Description:
502 residues, alpha+beta, Spore Coat Polysaccharide Biosynthesis Protein SpsA, Chain A, Trefoil (Acidic Fibroblast Growth Factor, subunit A), six-stranded antiparallel sheet, five-stranded mixed sheet, 24% helix, globular, glycoprotein, glycosyltransferase, manganese, transmembrane helix
Amino acid sequence: MFAQAAFNVYISDRIALNRSLPDPRPNECSDLDYDFDSLGTASVVIIFTDEIWSALLRTIVSVWNRTPHKLLKEIILVDDWSQKIELKQDLVDYCSSYFGDKVKIIRTERREGLIRARIMGAKQATGDVVIFLDSHCEVTKDWILPLLQTIRNDPSTVVCPVIDVIDDKTLQYFTGNAYYFQIGGFTWSGHFSWIDVPSSWMQNNPTKAIESPTMAGGLFAIDRNYFFSIGAYDDQMEIWGGENLELSFRLWQCGGRLVIHPCSHVGHIFRDYHPYSFQGKDTHGINTLRTVYVWMDKEYQKYFFMHRKDLLSKDPGDLTKRLQLKEKLKCKSFKWYLDTIYRGKKFMFDKNAKAYGSVRNPKTNLCLDIMNQDEDKEIRIGVFHCQEASQEEWSNQFFTLTKSGHLRREEACCSATDNKFVELRTCSDNEEEDANDEEIFQLLESQLWKHTKGGWIQNKFTKMCLSTRGVKNGESVSLAKCNDSDMYQIWWFQKYTDINVL
C-alpha cells in the first residue's frame, strides 16, 4: 500500500478527514484584521492522478472547513486521466452530497500532466484569485486570508504559504519554529532548493511576507487575470518538472513579485519518490532545458550544462511563443535577476575557483560523489566509478575548490570529521553564533583544504588527506595520514584555472 502512493495509505485511511490541526503561525498573526468584503474570491484548483481516496478527500475537506465560504468561489478538481474506479462516480456522488455545486470536477481526455491540467483548471476558474494545491495537503486556520490580502494589495504579487511537513509514514503534522522558515532557491542542475533567509533580508515584523527567489511550485496563489497575462504555464512542457522555476524566473524578470507569507500555513505530504509514470521521458530535464534557453542569459546557461551535458544535444521543442512573450513583456535579464533578486548570493563554479569538475583518483578511477543523497541534509561524501560528462549522474561528481580553500558543492562545503570521514555541511563563516572561539576555529578550519595539481587534497584542521585506500566503489571516502608515495591519495580535478594550485 505504501508503494502505490509513496506514503502510508493504511494510516491515511484511518485518520479522520476533518482531523484537528495545530496552529503553526507566529502568535502575532492572530491579531491581524481583514476586511472580508475587499478580499475578493478564490478558486482552489487541485490536480490529481489516481490519488489515494482518503488523502484527496482530506485535502478537499480541510479547504472546505477552514475557508470562509464567502471567500471560496469554488473548488475545482481536475482528474488527469485517473484509472481508479472510486475516483469516478463515487467521487462525484460524495462531492455532490457534502459540498453541493461548490466542488466542480473536470476530467482530461488523456494524460495531460500537472502543467496542462493546471492551465485547464485555471481556465474554468471564476474566482478573482486562483490557488493551486496538491492533492495530498491540509490547510490550517486562516490560511487563505493573508494570501488574498497580499494579492489585493498588489495583483502582480504571487504568494505562497509556508509549507509544513506531513510525515509520509505516520502522517503526523509537523510545525517546527513558527518564527523560522526557508525561502526558495535553485541549483544550477535545474532543481528547486530550500535556502535559509539571509539576515539582511529578515523583517522585524513576523507577520510580513518575505520575498523568495523561487517557489516549490505545488502551493501558491495568483490573481487569475495576472496568471494569464504573464503567460500562465508553458503548455509545451510535459507532465511535471521545471515549471516552478520557469514561472519563478518569469515572475521576477517580467515585473512581478514572489513572496512567502508566514501567516499562511499548509501541510503537505512530502514523498521520497513519484508513484506515477513519466512515460519513459526525462520530463524534468527537457522542461528545464526550455526554461534555461528562454530565461537564462547565454553566459549563465553554461552552469546548467556543466551539470547536464546530456541535454546539450536534446531538442527543447519550439520556443518561439515563449521568446515572443519575453519580448512582449519587456522582461529583464537573468543577470538582473541574480544581482537584484538573489542579491549576488548565487555561487558560480568557475568564479573565484582554483579547480572544478569531477575529482578523480587515477589509481582506482573512482571520483568523489554525493551518492544520490539529499544535499539539504548533512551527508557523507563517497566515491563512485567516474561518470562521463554526458551522463545525468555526472552532476553527483561535480565539486569546486575555491580560492578561499573550500572544497564544495553548490550550496554546501566538505568538512573533515573526527571519525576520519568527510561530510557535506552548511558552509561556515565568521558569523557563526552561539559558539566559542575554539569551536568557531575548528568549524572554519575543518572546511578548508589544500591541493596541488595531481597531488594531495589535505584538510587544514586535521592535516589528513583524502584517500581511497581500502575504499570500494559506493563507499565513503576516508581521511588518512598524508603520504607522498601513496597513489590512493592522488587526485585530479577535471579542470584547473591555475596549474600551480595550492
